[in-house]
Structure formats: C-alpha cells, structure tokens
Amino acid sequence: MQLVLTFHQAPTSVCSRSCPPGYRKAIIEREPTCCFHCIPCPQGEISNHTDSANCYRCPWNQWPNVERSRCLDRTIEFLSYEDVLGSTLMTFSIASSLVPIAILKLFIQYKSTPIVKANNFSLSCLLLVCLFFCFNSALFFIGYPNFQKCLLRQITFGIVFSLCISCILAKTIMVVFAFLATRPCSRLHRFTKTSFSYILIFICFFIQCVLSMSWLALAPPYPQYNVHDLPGLIIVECNEGSLLAFWLMFGYLGLLAFTSFFVAFVARRLPDTFNEATYITFSMLAFVSVWMSYVPASLSSRGKYTVAMEVFAILCSSWSLVICMFLPKCFIILLRPELNTKTRVKINITKM
Fold first, then answer.
1. DSSP of 12-64, one letter per residue?
2. What pLDDT, on a 0 to 100 scale, did the predictor assign at position 117?
3. What is the pLDDT of residue 184?
4. Which residues contact 201 (CB under 8 A, 6 or more apart)?
5. Are 241 and 215 in contact, with CB atoms under 8 Å apart?
6. Nearest-angstrom CA–CA distance, 301 and 262
7. d(Cα 202, Cα 170) in Å, to the nearest integer?
8. Mapping DSSP to helix (H, G, I), strand (E, B) and coil, where does residue 222 land?
9. Quick one: pLDDT at residue 193?
10. Which helix (H) or strand (E) holds 226?
11. Does residue 75 contact residue 234 with C-beta atoms inside 8 Å?
12. At the topology level of CATH, where does 77-350 sit?
C-alpha cells in the first residue's frame, strides 16, 4: 500500500526571521540571500516597514520613538518662566533686588551717622544701585531666547557688573590714598577727593562699554536651535557670536575683581579711620570664587541647566557683595547703635 502526502502550501526556504520595523537587514557573507542579521537602526534613524534594507534619518526637528519605527516631534527646551526652575530663579532674583533698595533707604535715613560717613556715602549709594541692577540682570537669562534677549543679556551682565566692581575698586583705592595722604609732604591729597573716584569709575566702566559695543558691532549674539547636545530635544539657546569677545568681556571683569582683591588685601591693615578693606577683601574673594566655580560647572551641564548655572552665579556673586560689604554696617545701625559713634567707629574700623 502506497502512502500519498498532500501539501496545501509550498514550503518556504529561509534561514532568518523577518526584521521588524526599527531594524534593517544585514547580509551574512558566504550565505544565501535569504540569510541575514537584523540590526537595530542607529540613533536618530528609523525603519517603518518589515525587512527594510536601510534606515532613514529623521528630519532635524524630529526624533525616533523608542521602537525607532517612526519620527516624533522633538521637545523644545529653554529656561522658561513657567518651568519650576525658571520661576524659582525669577522670584529669587526679584526678591533679592529689593534688598539693596532697602539698604539704600537705610543708608539715606542714617547718612549723618559716623558709620555711614566713614564708608563714603556717595560711593556706597552708587554701589547699592548697581547691585539692584546686578540682581535684575539675571532676568535677561530667563524666558525664550529671542534676538533682543540674546543681544542684551551678556552685554547687560558685563556692563552692570563692571560698574559694580569699579565702585568697589574706587572705594579700595580711596582707602590707600586716604592713608598715604596723611604722611608729611604728601601730594596725594587731590586723589582723595570724591571727583577722582568718579573719574576712576568712569574709565573702568568706559573700557567695558567699548569692549561690549565692539562685540555687538563685529559679531553680535543671536538665537539658535541646538539639536546635537541632548537626544530628542531642541535646545533654544543664544550663540555668543564671538567667543573671543565674550571671554574678553568676562576676562576684563575678572581683572577688575582681582585688582580690587589685591589692593584691598594689601590695604586691609592700614591704620586709617576709613579703612573697610577687610570687607572688600572678603567680598572680592567670594565674588572670584563663585565665578571660578561657575566655569567648570557650566561646561559640564547642558541645555537649560547651563543658563540656570549662570543665573545662579549672578545671584550668588551679587549676594556675596551685599553680605560682605553692607551686612556688618546694617547690623551696627539697626542692632548695635551704641557702636555707631565717632569714637567706636574709629576703633572698629582701625582694627579691620
């Protein structure tokens, strides 16, 4: 008896399973064409049908889904006011800017007292106004980075802080000249006048303005879309235009701070009634430390966190100046008024 087998479907001759979407076929050498490997599509590419021979890159504003079978719109990222981080920094910046105004009002109210007179009332008021703008300059870094904001934020930061540090440098140099002018036959009396300190401030401030205007004229900052740093995100950021101009502005600010620190450190023990060099030394040390820590921290961060690091550095450096320069004076004015006399102020400041 003969057995007859009947096949209703032709058998398939393959040695590999089909590659699903998200993969592509890779031929195995020295094997039949029906034998192949299934290789996942590389980052940024997709395949949207079975047994695809190639993967295809998504458009610049899209990114593959997890399965790498279709393209999805990228998420746009920037430090926005609606973001928790952005709103927190904005609130802290606005609240902090009120502190110099409160101190300024306190100084005006007690301007006839010895401790306010002994610390150059006019320069202290100008410094407090500058600190108000320093705190508010952080607001330029929050929100969508359009052309106007990119154009102004680093320039505003550099100009405002250079004016602030110039005021401190002028206060420091006035301490030295006030001591040297007391020596017999000294010709430095003309340098102890208030007009000289304002000339010095103007010169330092003018140099920063020239650097900033040259930056804007030759290679101004502009907004750009960054799709390379973080997968699946479009980072809206400001391109500084010229890194050389940016570091010149930043370096000049550092030069002013280091000069103020050096002069204040040398003058901290001068036996002069108007010597507040110790406070200036600590304020410049804190200021320089903040910005030296910012540089490596910003290089290791990406996206909105890079901008948040700069905002945080602006606020911390501004607070370091407020605390070191004005907190001890406010403490004596408000809580220890018995020390706010000509005799006690002379003793206290001489020992700084």
1. P--SSPPPPTTEEEEEPTTS-TT-EEEEEPPTTEE--STT-SS-EEPPTTEEE
2. 79
3. 54
4. 126, 163, 166, 167, 169, 170
5. yes
6. 32
7. 10
8. strand
9. 67
10. strand 222-226
11. yes
12. Rhopdopsin 7-helix transmembrane proteins (1.20.1070)
| Secondary structure letter of residue 112 according to DSSP | T
Start-end of CATH 1.20.1070.10 domains in the chain: 77-350
- With 0-12 / 13-18 / 19 or more C-beta atoms within 10 angstroms meaning exposed / middle / buried, residue 185 is exposed
Instruction: Give the mean pLDDT per block of 10 residues along the chain (352 residues).
Output: 51 69 82 78 87 87 88 89 92 95 92 81 90 93 91 90 91 74 58 76 92 90 88 88 89 90 77 64 88 83 88 93 89 83 54 38
Kindly give the residue spans of alpha helices, DSSP state H, lying in the chain. 84-109, 114-117, 121-137, 147-180, 194-218, 243-267, 277-299, 304-335, 342-350
Q: Which residues contact 30 (CB under 8 A, 6 or more apart)?
A: none
d(CA 87, CA 304): 13
Residue 118 tokens read as 């002994």
* Residue recorded with tokens 């001591």: 179
